[in-house]
């Protein structure tokens, strides 16, 4: 194991394992295919105050996402709820705005790393270096994530030219 790998969090390692398990090689991550392969049902329903919920039921495990959210936000919520699944968080999990518990932070980290693996982001960040004006929007569309999520990921990866990215 490389020295750099030892510094990864459990959520980062687990997201990498999922990418490897499903043989993913580039964006966007096919969340529907992953959920189907795991026997997880995804439903979309309106909620007032939550982005989504994962009910880890032995018979009918289900992820429900808020229909009032933008599609890219729904994708992040599905990835977040998959984080609860892969990280072994039991029972019901609600993705609430501003949730700050350790399991919520871990699920958020998992989601970011699953949807935007560092190696992929670095590859495309460099590939679109000549188009700095539109690079963020191009990559957000390519990864099928929000611009805000991609901006945060680019900043944390400290990519060259990311100092000009405002969050």
Give the class-level CATH name of the largest domain.
Mainly Alpha
Query: Which percent range fits the helix content?
Result: 40-55%
The major pleated sheet works out as: 4 strands, mixed
Number of domains: 2
Q: Trace the largest sheet across and list its strands.
A: 1-3-2-4
Annotation field: number of helices: 8
Task: Return residue spans where pLDDT drops below 50 for at least 5 consecutive residues.
Answer: 1-5
Radius of gyration using CA atoms only? 16 Å
Average pLDDT level: 87
Q: Judging from the principal axes of the Cα atoms, what is the shape?
A: globular
Q: Which structural class should the secondary elements be placed in?
A: alpha+beta
- Helix and strand succession? HHHEEEHEHHHH
- Number of strand segments: 4
Head-to-tail CA distance between termini = 33 Å
Query: What would CATH call the architecture of the largest domain?
Result: Orthogonal Bundle
* CATH third-tier fold name of the largest domain: Arc Repressor Mutant, subunit A
How much of the sequence lies in strands comes to 5-15%
How is this structure best described in words?
It is a single chain. The chain has 167 residues and is an alpha+beta fold. It folds into two domains: 115 residues, Arc Repressor Mutant, subunit A; 51 residues. It has a four-stranded mixed beta sheet with strand order 1-3-2-4, with helices on one face. The radius of gyration is 16 Å and the shape is globular. The N and C termini lie far apart (33 Å). The N terminus is likely disordered.
């Amino acid at each position: 194991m490389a020295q750099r790998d030892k510094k990864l969090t459990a959520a980062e390692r687990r997201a990498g394992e999922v990418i490897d398990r499903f043989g993913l090689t580039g964006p966007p991550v096919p969340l529907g295919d992953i959920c189907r392969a795991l026997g997880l049902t995804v439903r979309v329903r309106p909620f007032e105050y939550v982005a989504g919920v994962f009910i880890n039921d032995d018979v009918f495990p289900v992820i429900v996402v808020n229909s009032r959210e933008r599609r890219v936000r729904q994708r992040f919520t599905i990835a977040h709820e998959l984080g609860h699944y892969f990280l072994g968080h039991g029972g019901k999990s609600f993705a609430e705005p501003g949730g700050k518990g350790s399991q919520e932070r871990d699920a958020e980290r998992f989601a970011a790393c699953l949807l935007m693996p560092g190696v992929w982001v670095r590859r495309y960040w460099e590939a679109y270096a000549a188009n700095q004006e539109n690079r963020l929007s191009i990559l957000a569309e390519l990864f099928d994530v929000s611009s805000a999520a991609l901006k945060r990921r680019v900043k944390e990866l400290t990519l060259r030219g990311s100092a000009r990215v405002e969050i």
